[in-house]
């Protein structure tokens, strides 16, 4: 009887970066086991024949009961060393499973503390690491606010930028009930928005926004890349984050160094001793650094590829090293520069034509299109991804960056049926 040793991947609807995770596991000589929820649309995963086992549940979201049943069915010769999932909604499930398997991970309480935006904010405020105050959004509080442009609303526990917007975009809190119900019935978000609506309102954080990709081992945090968000705008009740540049272009090196130190202090305050984190923070001269969110997972879009291009490290590899109690040894930064743009579609409309533009002033490293002509986009209040593209801007003169970034907004040209 042959023994098998591997890692369990929790996949949401046959997505969730299974292919790059499988490649990392194969390089370590480990088998790849995948437990996935049922896909909400027709998908044939290209990695199907590369994994050791794939099981798909009947529901659109995984539960701990599914995982426990799966573990109980594994043959005795199979050893799982750890569990991993890049899907935000499964982060507590991942932590709980790693507790069963004995892998090096955060406990469920720590994960929940980070994902609960009210708890996280109040924790940092208590430790004087945040000047921002947050409260549950209730009618009585809402009607006492005179200047709503000075506040921001978001789900207490959510996903991506859904339901995140400046408070003056809202007429009455009752509007959030319909928004929440849309999210509850959105099969792509299955398992994330449940029970009663719960939103928070907090002081508006001003300044430019940055993403810190950090790895923590034995209580020591190391930031391996920082992206600056540009071209952000509000669409309905969702903030669309259209582009990122790495390293940042709008901040001085000393301020960026202070940001890295600040992020490490916040993680320490929250009792974080291990794991990979995608941390969003803002900086303004008058306020200094403020945390927006601390996500105990890898960043989305091209964060993985952009970080690898800039810093020469693979975030998934670092995360697996952490879970498997391997030494964390990030390579010296390559100091290359990268830029990526994400393209969003219009809710409920049908795509009639898609073209992509060529001839930009920087080499295109990769591009992905998630839709095709004739597709009708879902009628939903959230990000609807059309595609994304990644460029190497290492040789692009800094004074040309603004014009270049603006030109890439037309890389994918989309037309809709009338």
Description of the structure:
By secondary structure, the protein is an alpha+beta fold. It folds into 4 domains: 4-103, Rossmann fold (3-Layer(aba) Sandwich); 133-204; 207-335, ATP-grasp fold, B domain (D-amino Acid Aminotransferase, Chain A, domain 1); 338-416, no CATH class. 26% of the residues lie in helices and 30% in strands. The protein has 11 helices and 18 strands. The protein has helices spanning 18-27, 64-73, 91-101, 108-115, 117-126, 139-144, 175-185, 253-269, 303-311, 315-323, 401-407; strands spanning 4-11, 31-36, 53-56, 78-84, 134-136, 151-155, 165-166, 199-203, 208-217, 220-235, 238-246, 275-284, 288-295, 338-344, 351-356, 364-369, 385-392, 412-416. It has an 8-stranded antiparallel sheet, sandwiched between helices. Strands 3-2-1-4 form a 4-stranded parallel sheet. The longest helix is centred in the middle third of the chain and has 17 residues, at 253-269. The model has no long low-confidence stretch (mean pLDDT 92). GO terms for molecular function: ATP binding; ligase activity; metal ion binding. This is ATP-grasp domain-containing protein. Pfam families: ATP-grasp_4 (PF13535).
Show the helix and strand layout:
Layout: E1 4-11, H1 18-27, E2 31-36, E3 53-56, H2 64-73, E4 78-84, H3 91-101, H4 108-115, H5 117-126, E5 134-136, H6 139-144, E6 151-155, E7 165-166, H7 175-185, E8 199-203, E9 208-217, E10 220-235, E11 238-246, H8 253-269, E12 275-284, E13 288-295, H9 303-311, H10 315-323, E14 338-344, E15 351-356, E16 364-369, E17 385-392, H11 401-407, E18 412-416
Helix pairs in contact: 3-4
């Amino acid at each position: 009887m042959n023994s098998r040793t591997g890692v369990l991947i929790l996949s949401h609807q046959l997505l969730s970066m299974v292919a790059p995770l499988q490649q990392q596991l194969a390089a370590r000589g480990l088998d790849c086991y995948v437990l996935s929820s049922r896909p909400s649309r027709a998908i044939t995963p290209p990695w199907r024949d590369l994994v050791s086992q794939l099981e798909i549940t009947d529901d659109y979201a995984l539960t701990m009961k599914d995982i426990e049943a799966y573990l109980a069915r594994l043959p005795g010769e199979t050893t799982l060393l750890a569990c991993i999932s890049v899907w935000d909604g499964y982060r507590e499930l991942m932590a709980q499973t790693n507790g069963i398997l004995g892998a090096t991970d955060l406990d469920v309480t720590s994960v929940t503390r980070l994902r609960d935006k009210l708890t996280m904010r109040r924790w940092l405020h208590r430790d004087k690491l945040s000047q921002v105050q947050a409260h549950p959004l209730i009618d009585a509080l809402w009607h006492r606010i005179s200047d709503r442009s000075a506040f921001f609303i978001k789900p207490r526990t959510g996903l991506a930028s859904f339901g995140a917007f400046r408070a003056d975009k809202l007429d009455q809190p009752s509007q959030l009930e319909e928004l929440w119900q849309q999210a509850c019935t959105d099969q792509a978000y299955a398992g994330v928005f449940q029970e009663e609506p719960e939103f928070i309102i907090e002081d508006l954080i001003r300044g430019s926004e940055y993403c810190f990709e950090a790895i923590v081992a034995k209580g020591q945090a190391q930031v391996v890349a920082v992206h600056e968000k540009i071209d952000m705008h509000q669409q309905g009740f969702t903030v669309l984050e259209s582009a990122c540049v790495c390293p940042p272009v709008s901040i001085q090196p000393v301020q960026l160094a202070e940001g890295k130190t600040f992020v490490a202090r916040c993680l320490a305050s929250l009792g974080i001793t291990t794991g990979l984190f995608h941390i969003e923070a803002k900086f303004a001269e008058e306020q200094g650094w403020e945390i927006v969110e601390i996500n105990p997972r890898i960043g989305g879009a091209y964060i993985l590829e952009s970080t690898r291009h800039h810093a020469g490290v693979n975030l998934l590899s670092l995360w697996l090293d952490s879970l498997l109690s391997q030494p964390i040894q990030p390579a010296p930064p390559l100091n290359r520069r990268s830029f990526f743009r994400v393209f969003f579609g219009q809710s409920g409309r049908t795509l009639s034509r898609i073209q992509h533009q060529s001839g930009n002033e920087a080499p295109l490293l990769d591009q992905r299109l998630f839709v095709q002509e004739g597709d009708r986009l879902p009628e939903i209040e959230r990000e609807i991804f059309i595609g994304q593209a990644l460029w190497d801007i290492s040789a692009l003169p800094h004074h040309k960056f603004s014009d270049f970034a603006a030109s890439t907004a037309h890389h994918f040209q989309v037309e809709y049926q009338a």
